[in-house]
Design a protein that fits this description.
The protein is mainly α. Helices cover about 65% and strands about 5% of the residues. The protein is built from 12 helices and 4 strands. It has a two-stranded antiparallel ribbon. A two-stranded antiparallel ribbon has the order 3-4. It is globular. About 5% of the residues have low confidence.
């Protein structure tokens, strides 16, 4: 991409950085120069990196709430929030996903400690900046939510098969989904670079798995779900015709994300877990 240029989220044609509308499809471009008369939907879901910022901010807010709830400094590497605090904001484990299925989404925004949060947020900003400029905010929102849910569903099935006690959370399933989508995008374009990107990504994933206690099942589930989504988005013809549909779906993803956290916070399950912890400490 040329310096000082931006891609139209509707038709994906290249435009100058200061252009208020796309020279190809005539629609308002994201950023501060967007046409004042654009609809609310376009202003929100067409804004530059809006969804990347939204999901990053939501993860930060949930982590801050968990820190306040724990009554101390946030846990760093090697220490974690109490199980009750993780469950309070949406973590899943045991059979909680099947009892409260909204946790498959809420868990995406919960992080175990400060290092876990920092690594995932840096990756989210990097991948989000790269993908949102290519596919637009609405499609990125759908990609992030769908792959995050897919990752935790696969994780739930895998850990249930093992039968070991576990609690898990984090945005890495969505991040692996975004990476899978990027590789799928390159593959659909017949860009030979997809092989090098895939190889580098595989090396990174293996090294990361050895360095940290990660949820490999969620990573695999997110990646496998993300690849075909990226492939289909690149092959999409006349994407501007479906922009309103994707904007509505993105709005639903935002609402579902917020609702999943609220439902988890108001669930009695984390309170029961808290009572067990208090009784154990007495």
């Amino acid at each position: 991409m040329a310096v000082g240029s931006k891609i139209c989220p509707f038709c994906r044609r290249l435009n100058g950085a200061d252009e208020p509308t796309c020279h190809s499809c005539g629609r308002p471009l994201p950023g501060p120069t967007a046409r004042a008369g654009a609809s609310i939907v376009r202003q929100v879901f067409g804004a530059e990196l809006f969804m990347t910022r939204f999901f990053t901010g939501l993860c930060l807010v949930v982590f801050a709430l968990g820190t306040l709830g724990s009554g101390g400094f946030p846990p760093i590497f090697g220490s974690y929030f109490a199980a009750s605090e993780l469950l309070r904001w949406g973590a899943i484990g045991f059979d909680l996903g099947r009892i409260e299925p909204w946790r498959y989404l809420a868990a995406v925004f919960v992080h175990l400690n400060l290092v876990h949060l920092a690594l995932n947020m840096l990756s989210l900003v990097y991948l989000g900046r790269m993908l949102e400029q290519q596919v637009g905010g609405a499609r990125l929102a759908l990609l992030f939510v769908v792959t995050g849910i897919a990752g935790f569903v696969v994780s739930d099935l895998w850990h249930s098969y093992l039968g070991a006690p576990w609690i898990t959370a984090g945005a890495s399933g969505s991040l692996f989904g975004m990476m899978g989508a990027f590789i799928g995008w390159l593959y659909a374009r017949r860009d030979p670079e997809w092989k090098n990107v895939l190889l580098r990504f595989a090396v990174y994933a293996v090294a990361f798995a050895f360095a940290f206690p990660v949820n490999n099942a969620a990573h695999l589930g997110g990646f496998v779900a993300g690849f075909p989504i990226g492939f289909l988005l690149q092959r999409e013809r006349r994407p501007e015709r479906r922009q309103r549909v994707f904007a509505i779906l993105a709005a639903l993803c935002v609402i579902a994300s917020l609702a999943s956290i609220v439902l988890s916070a108001t669930s009695p399950i984390w309170k029961v877990r808290k009572a067990i912890e208090i009784e154990r400490d007495l």
